[in-house]
Design a protein that fits this description.
Strand content of chain B: 15-25%
Number of strands of chain B: 30
Number of strands of chain A: 12
Helix content of chain B: 25-40%
Strand content of chain A: 35-45%
Helix content of chain A: 10-25%
Number of domains of chain A: 1
CATH superfamily of the largest domain in chain B: HPT domain
CATH architecture of the largest domain in chain B: Up-down Bundle
Structural class of chain A: mainly beta
CATH architecture of chain A: Beta Barrel
Order of helices and strands of chain A: HEEEEEEHHEEEEHEEH
Shape of chain B: globular
Number of helices of chain A: 5
Largest sheet of chain A: 6 strands, mixed
CATH topology of chain A: OB fold (Dihydrolipoamide Acetyltransferase, E2P)
Oligomer: heterodimer
CATH superfamily of chain A: CheA-289, Domain 4
Shape of chain A: globular
Largest interface: A-B, 30 and 36 residues
Number of domains of chain B: 5
Strand order of the largest sheet of chain A: 9-1-2-12-11-10
CATH class of the largest domain in chain B: Mainly Alpha
CATH class of chain A: Mainly Beta
CATH topology of the largest domain in chain B: Four Helix Bundle (Hemerythrin (Met), subunit A)
Distance between the termini of chain B: 73 Å
Radius of gyration of chain A: 16 Å
Chain lengths: 180, 849
């Protein structure tokens, strides 16, 4: 049953039937989720090697048994640290150090998302997702495809492929290199 | 038919190789229409396709091939002569065959396309002796004895018996295909080897007797795996066709062992072998680290080390293939395109034997094809335009591949109209990619980079003018995806050169591991020239002789630091500040005050030093620092755009280390090209282009070499014009009637006293020592004699023009056509000398003999 659901393209959560399994986690006090099938493993003590001059959303590289995996600082990638009052009303002010690696294998590329806390694997009816309505597009809204209004708050569905691209707003698209 | 699927598949693969060979041969045949060997080779190839298609009941294919074969037979017999029309028709036939094969591959059937017209044309060309055999002549159910199908009634050539057919099939692999198709026919079909040669009906002296090396045996069809013995292919693994030509001649008795020594292996399998070897290398590195303290296992570890290294080397070799595989299709591409564009293009191919990794070959196929098409389509002008421009009517397209410092460079060069830089500049502005004032400051080279912008080149404004560069962004993306670079140079009216540089392999390279602050980084060893220790306790002196005993000293302004190395200035880059690893105020040039090392590297035409803290062994221990074998892995889509890293690797201790992209660093740090004088002669034209097209004002804030003349004038020279600084003993200076020269590197370097050069007084050379600044000019190097080098610095402000030299009354070697400006540099005024943009300097190159 679950396999059927995961074959549904999560980037287009059109009203459908059935239930999807999602791994939920906390980033900067907000709840996000990715399809559970994309999760390869969870690491709590990954050694991250920094990449100088990388976009700030890239926390570094992780050696996962010989495979080099980019580590995404989700909080920065989603721009949740910006001092945007409207964005921050539900965010916990003091950010605990994000130490949990949520390692994903989305399409053929691997990545690790730095998250604050893994919550649970939840089953959500696909039909219950609603499109993200944004008055103004942000890095966060760009990278999310749908939102689920649960009993304990909103949960955003991340578009992993989008997350793997550099955030368009935190870094200009022109690939100018850092000046010395 | 269904159970033949696998063999059909193999037939398809074989045939497509054969077709590529046909393309090559036919185009080559146009050059030398009376080459009997080549004709014979073509004939056999077509014959093979015909025969094999018969086995599978592909009647349409068979008919087409037959028509072609017949025409070829006439050509071979000398009954008719090859002309462009015939060649064109034969090439059309090749295309038609290809189309049918594609259809078979996709749908399993030949498709509905009607090639009767083509068949008719082929037949008509055979002097209309007989109409093309209608394709319907032999629709036969699959599994029919192949013999029948290979012998259409209209065939008047003497190929008849099954034995003969088999014998003349040039390619063993195809032959084997027939076996499962008609197992019962096997017995009569399998001729004794010796007989097969004898039975050859056709006279080609190069009878492809490989057949006998194969002795088709019934168990071969059972080889259901993709790995099939490709008996007659001498080089391992390559799929390059086995051109059934020349070397296959006559005596085959001695061949069998060689023939049986190669194996056709699935590329994916080789890939996974290499991956595993890569893992093994990593594990080996870890093992060495772990075993360092256990004496008992040292011997075993050493053995593992040695064996792993050999294994790795061997595994790499299995994947190497000549780039001819890509190049081979270009004669056909160029021919077709030039015919359809009404252009006359000569293709020169050089270095087709250059080997590179198989996966890379696949990946450069399309980009290179694109570049070649571009060159013919847009670069090379139509004949009348070329004549008007005073060029030879026939355009030249040159393809060159060669190894260069651990990389393969492929150069696509045309002598066409070049890329109109100004049009690109305007287009970039109009598309909002850059504002107008900034655009004016772009050098031509920088401007050309815009053709790689997505969608840029397809824009009408550019294509109308030049048409050049359609889809260049795709080319660049594809090349960069495999760790390569694309580099374009163009000179209006003279042509365009595009250089594609690709790593030899993606997999395993030796590298130097360096430390910089908290970071460990790998520098590919292929680019490393030497290590230069920096003096400890650097006091940043700018003394007259910085290259002293304790190590190099970093000099120059912060924005353009240099070290002196054997009398030359080497620009250096602080890795720490480049990577933002230290606050920039930590030290004068971002390097640690206490020493450090300069890694002198050379990449492309750039040579510079990278300042690092020290070397590190791979294991991170204090054992002998230096080179380590690393397994290059892609660092991912987020790291690549940074432009500073070529990839990453996992070290023995499990940490991830980034591999520096020196080319990217040279670009970011704006390192000038330095090796101009050592480059190959054919690059000279580009140099001239650079100088001639350079906007004078671009040089405003470029680094200057400041020196003092013997009369105490402060004179500044653009650093980019300076190729080196030299000191000679006076005894080495020789006088000719009107000038001084010094022998240097096999030629004479003209020397001119700077004061003399400026039109001032002449002074005899004295002091025993001569300090010269060697400048590159379009006509060759010239040495300016100065009293001393004062500094290398960026001017404080734009120069003020005071006069230009265009006075013909000046002596021939003086600064005719130079301009002189005043500039403030390092707080003092200096005269800035530079070439006028559009002129050549008449220095005395005639001296160089």
């Amino acid at each position: 049953m679950a396999t059927d659901l995961h074959s549904t393209d999560p980037t287009q959560p059109l009203p459908g039937e059935g239930v999807g399994r999602y791994a939920a986690f906390l980033v900067a006090g907000r709840r996000f989720a990715v399809p559970a099938a994309d999760v390869a493993e969870v690491l709590r003590d990954g050694r991250v090697n920094k990449v100088p001059r990388a976009p700030e959303s890239l926390a570094g590289l992780l050696n996962l048994r010989g495979r080099i995996v980019p580590v995404i600082d989700l909080e920065r990638r989603l721009g949740l640290t910006t001092t945007d009052a409207g964005e921050r009303d539900t965010v916990t002010p003091a950010r605990p150090p994000a130490t949990v690696h949520l390692v994903l294998q989305a399409t053929h590329e691997w990545c690790s998302l730095l998250v604050d806390e893994i919550l649970d694997v939840v089953e959500i009816p696909i039909a219950a997702f609603q499109p993200v309505v944004a008055q103004q597009a942000t890095d966060a809204t760009d990278a999310t495809t749908a939102v689920y209004a649960g009993e304990d708050g909103l949960m955003y569905l991340l578009d992993v492929r989008q997350v793997l691209r550099p955030a368009p707003r935190s870094r200009p698209p022109s690939s100018t290199s850092p000046s010395t | 038919m269904m159970d033949n699927q696998e063999f059909v598949q193999e037939f398809l693969v074989e045939s497509s190789e054969n077709l590529d060979q046909l393309d090559r041969d036919l185009v080559a045949l146009e050059e030398t229409p009376d080459d009997p060997d080549r004709l014979a080779s073509i004939f056999r190839t077509v014959h093979t396709i015909k025969g094999t298609s018969g086995f599978f009941g592909f009647s349409k294919l068979g008919a087409l091939a037959h028509s072609g074969e017949h025409l070829l037979g006439r050509l071979r017999d000398g009954a008719i002569l090859l002309n462009e029309e015939i060649a064109g028709t034969l090439l059309s036939m090749v295309d038609a065959v290809r189309a049918i094969l594609r259809n078979i591959e996709e749908t399993g059937v030949e498709g509905t396309a009607d090639f009767r017209e083509l068949s008719d044309a082929l037949a008509a060309m055979s002097e209309g002796r007989e109409p093309a055999p209608p394709s319907g002549a032999r629709p036969r159910p699959a599994g029919n004895p192949p013999v029948d199908q290979s012998l259409p009634a209209s065939d008047d050539s003497p190929r008849v018996s099954p034995q003969q057919f088999k014998a003349s099939a040039s390619d063993v692999k195809i032959e084997r295909l027939s076996q499962p198709a008609e197992p019962d026919a096997q017995a009569p079909l399998a001729p004794p080897p010796a007989e097969s040669t004898a039975a050859l009906p056709t006279p080609p002296p190069t009878a492809p007797c490989e057949t006998d090396a194969v002795t088709p045996t019934p168990e071969q069809p059972a080889a259901a795996s993709p790995a099939v013995v490709s008996d007659n292919t001498p080089p391992p693994v390559t799929t390059a066709e086995v051109a059934p030509s020349s070397d296959a001649a006559g005596p085959q008795r001695s061949q069998p062992t060689a023939a049986e020594s190669s194996v056709r292996v699935d590329v994916g399998l080789l890939g996974s072998i290499l991956d595993l070897v890569g893992e093994l290398v990593l594990a080996r590195n870890q093992l060495r680290l772990a075993a360092a303290e256990i004496p008992q296992v040292q011997d075993a570890v050493r053995r593992v080390h040695a064996v792993t290294s050999s294994l790795q080397e061997t595994a790499m070799k299995t994947r190497m293939q000549p780039i001819a595989q890509v190049f081979s299709r270009f004669p056909r591409v160029v021919r077709d395109l030039s015919v359809s564009c009404g252009k006359d293009v000569r293709l020169e191919i050089d270095g087709a034997e250059t080997e590179l990794d198989r996966t890379l070959i696949e990946n450069i196929r399309d980009p290179l094809t694109h570049l070649v098409r571009n060159a013919v389509d847009h670069g090379i002008e139509p004949p009348h335009e070329r004549i008007q421009a005073g060029k030879p009517e026939t355009g030249l397209l040159s393809l060159r591949a060669f190894h260069e410092s651990g990389q393969v460079t492929v150069e696509v060069r045309d002598d066409g109209r070049g890329i109109p830089v100004d049009a690109i500049r305007r287009k970039a502005v109009s598309r909002g990619l850059i504002d107008a004032t900034a655009a004016d400051k772009l050098s031509d080279e920088e401007t050309l980079q815009y053709i790689f912008e997505p969608g840029f080149s397809t824009a009408a404004a550019v294509t109308d003018v030049s048409g050049r560069g359609v889809g260049m962004d795709v080319v660049k993306t594809n090349i960069e995806a495999i760790g390569g670079t694309v580099d374009v140079r163009s000179m209006p009216g003279e042509g365009t050169t595009i250089r594609v540089r690709i790593p030899l392999t993606l997999a395993i390279i030796p590298a130097l591991i360096v430390r910089c602050g908290p970071q460990r980084l790998a520098i590919p060893q292929a680019s490393v020239c030497e290590l230069v220790p920096l003096a400890r306790g650097n006091d940043n002196t700018k003394g007259t002789d910085g290259s002293d005993r304790r190590g190099a000293v970093i000099e120059g302004l912060e924005t353009a630091p240099v070290i002196r190395l054997r009398g030359e200035l080497l620009p250096v880059v602080s890795l720490a500040s480049l990577l933002g690893l230290e606050p920039t105020d930590a030290a004068p040039h971002g390097h640690p005050r206490h020493g450090g090392t300069v890694v002198r590297v050379r990449v492309d035409d750039h040579e510079f030093g990278v300042i690092v803290d020290d070397m590190q062994s791979a294991a991170g221990t204090a054992e002998a620092a230096g080179l380590t074998t690393i397994v290059v892995k892609p660092a991912g889509s987020l790291v690549a755009p940074i432009g500073l890293y070529a990839g990453a690797t996992v070290m023995g201790d499990g940490g991830v280390t980034l591999i520096l992209d020196l080319r990217g660093i040279a670009r970011v740090a704006d390192i000038p090209e330095r090796l101009a004088q050592t480059r190959q002669a054919d690059d000279h034209a580009h140099q001239l282009g650079d100088i001639a097209s350079e906007n004078v004002d671009e040089a405003i804030l470029a680094p200057l070499v400041v020196c003092r003349s013997r009369h105490g004038r402060r004179v500044a020279l653009p650093a980019r014009r300076v190729s080196r600084l030299e000191r000679f003993s006076e005894a080495a200076v020789e006088q000719t009637t009107d000038r001084s020269v010094v022998r240097h590197a096999g030629s004479f370097l003209p020397l001119v006293d700077l004061d003399d050069f400026l039109g001032g007084m002449t002074r005899p050379l004295a002091d025993g020592r001569v300090q010269a600044v060697v400048l590159n000019t379009p006509t060759g190097p010239i040495g300016l004699v100065v009293d001393e080098i004062v500094d290398v610095a960026i001017p404080d402000a734009a120069p003020v023009s005071i006069e230009s030299f265009e006075d013909d009354s000046l002596p021939p070697h003086s600064l005719k056509r130079w301009k002189r400006q005043m500039v403030d540099v390092a707080g003092q005024a200096a005269e800035l000398l530079d070439l006028l943009s559009d002129s050549a300097v008449e220095t005395s190159t005639s001296l160089a003999s």
